[in-house]
Design brief:
Number of strands: 14
Strand order of the largest sheet: 1-14-10-11-12-13-2
Structural class: alpha+beta
Strand content: 15-25%
Largest sheet: 7 strands, mixed
Mean pLDDT: 89
Distance between the termini: 40 Å
């Protein structure tokens, strides 16, 4: 791997953490447990410092691509059972993944419920699981469309009629028909702009709520959950196509299920789930540690919202802008009707979700997953100057199960580590004149189509 470190083996790193914990024989903290803490500390360090920028070249087969799949450097690999194992270690229970062999204080059902609740909340707040939902059934002359309950949010809608609703190609500048023009050549659908009922009443009479024609906008604000309305009921049969935010698969241990959030932020889910498990009314209640976990969970949500998941893009070797979906629709209407030749730009939407010209050579620079060692002789990918910070983070994970004054004392170590991560992040940002622009490109859609009118942290239920 280009730019890799080769000075510290994984087995040596584990021995050093065991020495830190005054358990060189790995009795109270087993070797398997220490492996997990070092791996998680490396991921947390990368999420705090944005160290591992990575290039990714591909040739899109479809217009929309998720960098969470395939051989992307942001591929999502961690399972719910990985999280259960870490939580079990941190709760002083046998780490058996998706089954339970521990005490009566907890059960696997407690972990599943807490982890899934926090996973669903992270998905909603950070918009990190968008997809293209095609072939959504519509009923001609009906304004409302219903969606499956796996849809959390709808970002964009296109009307895809089976034929030209304006009368086919003919003598007008874009074809014939009763309105003097058909589809613009090459256009295969109509992008519906998001609006609301008040705007329709004020600015779109007399078209608004007329019997049927071609819809121009869709509305969410005054509609029931899992539906949208269009301003004009479509008269021509067809389908809708929508960019939606979807929930992940339900967890059902002992089978393993993908967490489906960026790997380097799995620690956010774990802190959030531990906050729930330790904050409930039971023999397991620990208010102090539950409060700590909740704070780290909320910090992680804010961090994920600001992560620079994409920084640069090229199409066929030429640098192009990374435009937001809202901006592309506003300034290049129907850009995706020509999926092989639109541009020159790529379109970004939710975290890890982007569109690029089909069949072109596309390369992007993004924040890749932290490299995590597996074998004893694998090298830990961290610089000599930052290894102590990673050890600090791993030590905090490890001492959580001690509780009480011993864990409280470890919080000074955590504060030192976070301060060091902030300094490293600042140093890396200072290496370029426009690093601030580079790091903010992944938030373009959130800026142009803000999903929360107030502070985003208020969106989380806590």
């Amino acid at each position: 791997m280009a730019g890799s470190y080769s000075w510290l083996s994984f087995i040596t790193a584990r021995q050093q953490l065991a020495q830190r914990l005054a358990d060189p024989g790995m009795v109270f903290w087993t070797d398997g447990e220490i492996k997990i803490y070092i791996s998680q500390a490396l991921r947390m360090f990368n999420s705090l410092t944005c160290t591992w920028k990575a290039g990714f070249a591909f040739t899109p087969v479809n217009l929309w691509t998720s960098l969470s799949t395939g051989n992307s450097p942001r591929q999502r690999t961690l399972m719910d059972t990985d999280a259960y194992s870490q939580m079990e270690y941190m709760l002083l229970e046998p780490a058996t993944g998706g089954v339970w062999t521990g005490t009566s204080q907890f059960g696997i059902g407690d972990l599943v419920q807490a982890l899934q609740r926090r996973r669903d909340e992270v998905t909603q707040v950070t918009n990190c699981n968008q997809s293209l939902m095609a072939g959504i059934a519509l009923t001609p002359n009906t304004a409302r469309t219903a969606l499956p309950d796996t849809v959390i949010d709808t970002a964009r809608v296109r009307y895809m009629p089976v034929q030209d609703p304006y009368g086919g190609y003919g003598t007008g500048p874009y074809g014939g028909g009763p309105y003097g023009g058909g589809f613009v050549p090459g256009v295969t659908g109509f992008t519906l702009y998001r609006d609301d009922t008040v705007a329709q009443e004020w600015f779109e009479p007399p078209l608004y709520q007329q019997a049927s024609a071609v819809p121009q906008t869709f509305m969410l604000s005054s509609e029931p959950p899992l539906t949208w309305d269009v301003d004009i009921a479509p008269s021509i049969p067809g389908t809708y196509e929508a960019v939606v935010l979807e929930s992940g698969d339900a967890f059902s241990p002992p089978a393993s299920t993908l967490l489906n959030i960026p790997d380097d932020f799995a620690w956010v889910l774990i802190w959030g789930a531990l906050a729930d498990v330790l904050g409930r009314e039971s023999e397991a209640t620990d208010r102090h540690r539950a409060e700590f976990c909740m704070k780290r969970y909320m910090d992680g949500l804010n961090l994920l919202l600001k992560t620079p998941w994409i920084m640069l893009a090229r199409v066929n070797g030429a640098a192009v802008t990374t435009d937001s979906l809202s901006s592309a629709d506003r300034y290049s209407p129907e850009w995706d009707s020509n999926p092989a030749s639109f541009g020159p730009f790529v379109v970004t939407s939710g975290i890890d979700f982007m569109a690029a010209p089909v069949g072109s050579g596309v390369s992007v620079t993004c924040l890749g997953n932290a490299p995590v060692p597996v074998l004893d002789n694998d090298f830990v990918q961290v610089s000599r100057s930052n290894w102590d910070t990673v050890l600090d983070l791993a030590q905090v994970f490890a001492t959580f199960k001690l509780g009480g004054a011993e864990f409280q004392a470890a919080l000074e170590i955590e504060a030192r580590a976070i301060q060091a991560c902030a300094a490293e992040n600042s140093r890396l940002r200072s290496t370029g004149s426009f690093s601030d622009v580079l790091m903010e490109r992944g938030q373009a859609e959130e800026r142009d189509q803000n999903r929360y009118n107030s502070a985003k942290t208020g969106a989380a239920s806590g």
